[in-house]
User: Fold this.
Amino acid sequence: MQMRLRTYPSISFIVVLCYFSSAALVYAQAGKAEVTGEVRDQTGAVVTQARVVATEVSTTQTYSSVVTESGNYTITSLKPGTYSVTVEADGFKRFVREVVQLATGERVRVDVVLDPGSVAETVTVSQDASLLRTESGSLGQVIRNRKIVDIPLNGRNFFSLVTLSAGVAQPPPTTAGPSFPRINGGRPRTNEYLFDGISVLQPEPGQVAFFPIIEAIQEFKVEVNSPPAEFGRFNGGVVNLTTKSGSNDFHGSAFEFLRNEALNARNLFAPITANPNKPVFRRSQFGFVVGGPIIRDKTFFFGDYQGTRQLLARVRISTVPTLAQRQGNFSASLGALLFLQPNGSIGTTVTPNPVNVTDTNGNTIQARVGQVPSFGSSRVCGQSHPGEHIRSVGCIAITTLSEPNFERFGQQLYSHRQRARRSGPVRRSS
Assistant:
């Protein structure tokens, strides 16, 4: 029977809308990043009321803060990416740190020392912020986009990449795909999964409701120990993922991943003697991602689509009666010879006293493990069951079983291919 499953794809676009002065925005901080630090002069005194601006390089969007009386500043709700940090204060030269790389869920410290002078003068630092993260005690690792895209994935599910982080183990995959990872020794279903700051975990039965397309993932961070307080509702680790978004430049790509049985090795349990042709395995995963500006520096878009078409035939292995067993001869199934033991019991330890029985043909034979008494008589039919000793129901039932068509590991087996099942598309879009 051939089954055809078909759904119709949908394409949804994530559009970053204009920021109106009257709009009140609420951010999901768990999927964002922060910049914090102190602003002082060369004598070590704090510079209050200095203006700190973080500018995202790809979109030129700005986020600002003012230095407090204690000399500290914090800029929250920053999208992961590359920023430049500018500090201005009256009587001091403008300070610019050009490259500050922010990762998902990280809090980066950028301390600034201002030099006396005019604001028209600029001190530029091109070095990135320190790699040592002193603002949080959490332990984790960020998996970047390049590694996500370059590593081959069976089924194109990013779950397999979570094991790139230290302290993560993954049980063997199932027919449904990769298994849930064990983070820092926790159970697989006790982790939290956040996509762009939103939980995608279904509490029962602990499944992830949606998996983004590989090309649409910017990066993800695996929190393995002591995550910050904004992460809750779980007692395991955190997989914090950020998807791509539009920028001032158009970017996009198209992809096609193909699998075909002609490129596969023959299944060990589908030999040529049983099936001349390889079982059908054809999978095509294709799609695209595209993003860019609608209005430069203000409005951006990003969209992606993935479709899957597959035609699969599965190999089924059944243990069936051998040709001898179909004729009533079960002698090959018998075990070791039986002997009378010194304590009066019967066992397989060799003694001078064998246990003898009479078979269905009236011959005296030594008993063996696995022999059963013949129904309706006191004889033991361990060697064979001639046709007259097989009940009519059994004769009819055995005709419904296929004859063995190959042998593996000393067993006669029957191999057959389930008809190819077509499905498509198994789609993911965002």
User: Anything to note?
Assistant: The chain is about 5% helix and 40% strand. Confidence is low (pLDDT under 50) at residues 1-28, 375-384, 425-430.
